[in-house]
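Course assignment 3, question 2. Fill in each field.
Student: A.L.
Task: Predict the tertiary structure for the chain below.
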Amino acid sequence: MARGGSSKTSGSPALLPAPPLPRSPGTSGFVSLRPIKEFVRKLPLGHPLRIIVLSEPDEIDGDECFVKLTVWLRLLPEK
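Answer field:
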């Protein structure tokens, strides 16, 4: 890499990591997936959303949950 964090081949600057999102004071920053797990248990056994969500721990970091929800919503069956 060249000075300044840019690649010699691309000429574009290196991306910096995003700062952490602010958290509400007094919260742990974790989200319970239990209600979502109850919902996906109603889906057919082989449904990808059911398999993915049930493989997650019961609680995950709030930021991680937000990212995963954007993907999980795309896997919801259309009615």
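Instructor remarks: Residues 1 and 63 are 31 Å apart (CA to CA). The radius of gyration is 19 Å.
Grade: pending
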